[in-house]
Each structure stands twice: as structure tokens, then as C-alpha cells.
Model the fold of this input.
Amino acid sequence: MTEPNGLLVIIRHAPYASNLLREGLDTALVAAAFGQPVDLLFLGQGIMALLHEQGNGAPGQKASRPTMDMLEMYDIERLWTSQEALQALELEPSQLLGSVEVLEAKRLPDFLKSYSQILNF
Done:
């Protein structure tokens, strides 16, 4: 087994349910700005941030879509979700932004072991 490397930020909250998605994205951007390799895993309601057709939040809330669009500029190119999480929300990979990679839930434990640091939002 290879040595764990990089930071995995797990996003579990919908874009406008709380500030947690935004805080997770901001954390990922700051880590990447300091040269740390960062990947994002979207689970549960967090998958909603990956939808092409993302609605707006309440007045005064910052939209998460512009931040999602900036990820590649910070070399955050690996976005992940699980097949089971997509099925739970009745979504297809074709409804998601960019090149989101889909994992089977049974692969998640080994996937998580491949990271030296994991943060949940």
C-alpha cells in the first residue's frame, strides 16, 4: 500500500442549507493555494453542489457555483462521489458538473486510507 498523501475535503451539506459547504470549499481553496494536494468528496446532500442546474440561495447568501467553477484554477481537479449517494438522490452522473468520478461505497474505506488528512463539512 502506498503512503497516504494529500487532503480530502468531504462535503455532506447542501449548498444553501448552511455555511458548511462554503466553508469546506474555502478550506480546500486555502490548502491548495499553499501547495497542498486537495481532492473533494461529495456525499449526501453535498452532491447538490455538483448539479449543472443549481438554483440560487436566499437573498444575501453567496452562491456556491462561482467557487465550484474556481476549483480547477487552484489545481483541485479530482471531484468524487459515490454511486450509492447518487442513487439515494435519484441522480445520474450526467447531471453533474465536469468530470466527477464515481466510487462504489465498498471502495470508500480504502479510498479514505489514501489520504493523510480528511476534513468533514
